[in-house]
Amino acid sequence: MRNIKLTISYDGTDFWGWQTQPGYRTVQETLEHAIAETTGKRSVLRASGRTDRGTHAVGQVANFYTTCKLDCETFRKAIDFRLPEDISLPDIQDVAISFDANKDAKRKRYRYVIDDSPQGNPFMRRYACRSRFRLDVPKMLSASRPLLGRHDFHSFETGWPNRLSSIRTITHLSVNRVGDLIWIDVEADGFLYNMVRAIAGTLINVGRGFWPEEKVSEILLAEDRTVGGPTAPAHGLYLMRVTYD
């Protein structure tokens, strides 16, 4: 028996998220079908986490068990050949039988992409949140500073309260302009439901001048989602990488 670790990239536009849902096209179901066609046996993927409908991934990670004897590169090509164009496998590795892509994840990094160009870029409409107002990136960066470190992020959790705790540790948070795009990069030891999208929506309000920079601290301390900014659209969000120590 082998334990196979996959690194997965996908355009989330036409998927109903990661997790298998009967009657809907999902990343998990599509991948499991391609693996079954390759090995002749159904395998269940265990992912680092679930992404929502419309969310993209550059470095999602999942693992599964198999008795297939193909070497890793041949195996990768065989699975990739059976995948649609909106999913690819950049890497495949044999890992320890005990490895669990979800439980063993130490940190994840997400990127939220905003297009605030004056005229708008129609080619980015599925891959970046559109802002019709030019955003003040230095203000957004300054406002984000209080979010670094270990806090209760309940004010940035939407719709699906965490079962145990809303305390998380953000180890990296940056806001950068790249031409007419803005990248908000957030790395943490774990994320609450819609946490990055809620942070992005809040920082967009600061960047537009709706709120002062100090508002972010007030929202964080309130531990109340109703005082926070809007949840930014899913299509601007990318799972960039998962770190395992």
- Measured by DSSP, the beta-strand proportion falls in 25-35%
CATH class label of the largest domain: Alpha Beta
**Would you list the SSEs in sequence order as H and E?**
EHEEHEEEHEEEHHE
Anisotropy-based shape = globular
Number of domains: 2
Helix proportion? 10-25%
Number of strands: 10
Structural class: alpha+beta
| Count of alpha/pi helices | 5
As a whole number of angstroms, the C-alpha radius of gyration is 19 Å
CATH superfamily of the largest domain: Pseudouridine synthase I, catalytic domain, C-terminal subdomain
Largest sheet: 10 strands, mixed
Would you tell me which CATH topology of the largest domain applies? Alpha-Beta Plaits
List strands and helices in order, with pairings.
Elements: E1 2-10, H1 27-39, E2 46-47, E3 56-66, H2 72-81, E4 87-95, E5 107-115, E6 129-130, H3 137-144, E7 149-152, E8 167-178, E9 181-188, H4 195-207, H5 215-222, E10 237-243
Parallel strand pairs: 3-10, 5-6
Antiparallel strand pairs: 1-3, 1-4, 2-3, 5-9, 5-10, 7-8, 8-9
Helix pairs in contact: 1-2, 3-4
Subunit structure: Homodimer.
Protein name: tRNA pseudouridine synthase A
Binding site for substrate: 110
